[in-house]
Design brief:
Layout: H1 2-13, E1 20-29, E2 41-42, E3 44-57, E4 62-67, E5 76-79, H2 92-104, E6 113-119, H3 129-144, H4 151-166, H5 173-180, E7 185-190, E8 196-200, E9 206-212, H6 220-238, H7 252-258, H8 265-289, H9 293-310, H10 316-327, E10 332-336, E11 343-349, H11 353-368, E12 373-376, E13 384-386
Parallel strand pairs: 4-6
Antiparallel strand pairs: 1-3, 1-13, 2-7, 3-6, 4-5, 7-8, 9-11, 9-12, 10-11
Helix pairs in contact: 2-3, 2-4, 3-4, 3-5, 4-5, 6-8, 8-9, 10-11
The structure holds alpha-D-galactopyranose (GLA).
């Protein structure tokens, strides 16, 4: 891929200057879904598939952007002095948003630049291609303009871009793990304090396997924001009775006791998911550390049905993929990411992977007529410059 991005850059911008190269991973969340914005724990890892970028600085104030994944859009050119969101700029809005935010924070982005991007992360598959691009640009700027910002500061800035510039009210999980990822490790993150620990992921007999449903739902952003509003509404009600700041401050016992005040079955189910998912995630950390993959797998399955039945962010294709995975030897399976399509993550014995892949793909195709894709999740370091 390193060579590929170098060649791409030369094809688009010529060979006069030699670019600096960067990689930014995607992410898969193992457990702890839809609770980063509810003050819970999440358990993602950065992936070795992601976004590659090549950059050179210019002497004027022009920003030229090219992505091989959106080749038909050609080179998108903007001025550093006009970074307003524009629908026509598609993916380039992520870049513009990051630069704009850095400038608003008075960071010295003093010239324009040329960037070529390529990647091996499927777009819209719930593996966080957007946060991957945001961090790619943030880290490039941090390095090229010597901004001296910490990974944490970069992650927070990119989340702000997603919330305020792109308009998706996401939590901190994706940007944080993409910035802080570590090869062979998952990251257990407390989304309130932003304290985290790395948890070794390599298991002698089992792999984490991603199945891409190739279902892309158009309504995902609005549904996502709707869930956040529901959680806020539920929180406001519960705060009349309990001194909580976030839904995940509730333990299961308190939830049982005070749920009656919600008077609303939808809000009840949303809170039930948040509270039980947080407990599952905290336990899952101990289960993984103890090498108890079966218990971890059980927690993943419970997480999936909680997301499907109580939080209602799954879809028939994802539910089917979970069932089929379990019928084909997986000991843990769940949807991952925001949902409404995208991927499942599964625990599968190394020796069974080939058969698992063949069966899941065939059965899914017969039922839905869609080709699923299967990848073995390999964890990686966070966004970084790649040198020769
Ligand atoms: C998206 C968001 C995250 C998180 C997940 C669901 O990926 O960007 O902040 O809320 O959905 O867990």
């Amino acid at each position: 891929m390193k060579n590929k991005i170098r060649v791409l850059y030369a094809k688009i911008f010529g060979t006069k200057t030699s670019p600096r190269l960067f990689f930014s991973p995607g992410r898969v969340n193992l457990i702890g879904e839809h609770i980063d914005y509810n003050g819970g724990f999440v358990f993602p890892c950065a992936l070795n598939i992601g976004t590659y970028g090549a950059i050179t600085l210019r002497t004027d104030r022009l920003i030229n952007l090219y992505s091989e994944n959106f080749a038909s859009a050609g080179i998108i050119s903007v001025s550093i002095d006009n970074l307003e969101y524009q629908d026509a700029h598609l993916w380039a809005n992520y870049v513009k948003g990051v630069i704009r935010e850095l400038l608003q924070e008075k960071k010295p982005i003093t010239s324009g630049f040329d960037i070529a991007i390529t990647g091996d992360l499927p777009n819209g598959a719930g593996l966080s291609s957007s946060a991957s691009i945001e961090l790619l640009i943030a880290v490039m700027m941090n390095e090229l303009f010597h901004l001296g910002m910490s990974k944490k500061a970069l992650a927070i800035l990119c989340k702000k871009v997603e919330n305020e510039y792109i308009g998706v009210n996401c939590g901190i999980m994706d940007q944080f793990v993409i910035a802080h990822g570590k090869a062979d490790n998952a990251l257990l993150l407390d989304c309130i304090t932003l304290e985290y620990t790395y948890v070794p992921l390599k298991q002698p007999k089992y792999a984490f396997v991603i199945v891409n449903s190739n279902v892309k739902r158009g309504l995902i952003d609005s549904k996502y924001n709707e869930r956040r509003l529901e959680c806020d509404a539920a929180k406001k009600i519960l705060q009349r009775y309990l001194p909580i700041s976030e839904l995940c401050d509730l333990n299961e016992e308190q939830f049982q006791k005070y749920a009656i005040f919600l008077f609303d079955t939808v809000l009840y189910r949303r809170v039930k998911h948040a509270v039980t998912e947080n407990a599952r995630t905290i336990n899952a950390n101990h289960q993984l550390l103890a090498g108890d993959l079966h218990a971890f797998g059980e927690a993943m399955i419970a997480s999936h049905w909680s997301l499907s039945n109580d939080y209602e962010v799954s879809c028939p294709e994802l539910d089917y993929l979970v069932n089929v995975a379990l019928e084909n030897g997986s000991i843990g399976s769940r949807m991952t990411g925001a949902g409404f399509g995208g991927c499942t993550v599964n625990i599968v014995k190394y020796t069974d992977i080939y058969q698992f892949q063949a069966n899941v793909i065939a059965q899914y195709k017969t039922t839905f007529g869609i080709d699923a894709e299967v990848y073995i999740a390999k964890s990686s370091d966070g966004t970084r410059e790649i040198t020769n």
